[in-house]
Every structure is written in structure tokens, then in C-alpha cells.
Design goal:
The strands form 2 sheets. The chain has a 4-stranded mixed beta sheet, with no helix packed on it. It has a 4-stranded antiparallel beta sheet with strand order 2-3-8-7, with no helix packed on it. The chain is 9% helix and 34% strand. It is mainly beta and 143 residues long. The mean pLDDT is 81. The termini are far apart.
Length: 143
Amino acid sequence: MLMRTDPFRELDRLAQQLTGSGTWTRPSLMAMDAYREGDEYVMAFDLPGVSAEAIDIDVERNMLTVKAERRPTQKADDVQMELSERPLGVFSRQVVLADTLDTERIKADYDAGVLTLRVPIAERAKPRKITVGEASSRREISG
């Protein structure tokens, strides 16, 4: 039996009970990290305890939407819950992607409760060299 008390954890638990768990119409926010790695923009979303089948990723124009649902695990009839701190319900995050990203080639991986999306930088947004040509012969137009 667990008997540890943390006043801040108790405040978080109380706040979650008052606001309720996430629903499809009012999902809870999921934590994420975003960074650039070489020629890719990487986003990592924390989704512990969520199965890969419960994750929904959509891109419409430049709006990326990630939704996931964590459902309670089935317990036997004789189980009595002593402590329940893991949030259940629907989690969502929307990210506006820049025009410089190639939304047609997004890759998604899910491992150890972390969803990682990799969005390549579009070719048109990468720096490139422009060669300068010489105008060696001038022509005169006569009419």
C-alpha cells in the first residue's frame, strides 16, 4: 500500500478532479518538445500508456493536429483502486507549420510512450548558391 504524501501532487490531483479529464470536444493538452535537427524539424509528444492505434495525426494546409486517447485498463472485479494519478481521457495538440516545411513527407514513429514526428525542410527553403553568368556579347537592336 502506498502512503507517501506530496502537497503539490495533491493540489494537482484536486485541480484535475475539478476540471475533469479530457474529452473529444475539450481535450487536455499534451506535452511536447520541438527542435530543428539538420534538414528536419522534429516534434516529440509525451503519450505514455497510449496505444499506437489510439493516436490520430492530421495535417490540413499548415495545421498539424495530434490527438490521442488513454482509456482505463480493465481490472478484475475484486480489485480495489488505492491510488489513481495517471490522467485518462483525450489529449490534443495543434501546431501551425511554416510554409518552409514539406508537409507531404512527414514521418511518425512511436516508441516508449513518445510520438516523434519528423518534417523535412522544403527544398525551396534550403540555402542555395546562385551562379553569376557573364554578359560577354552585347547586341544592338536596329529597326
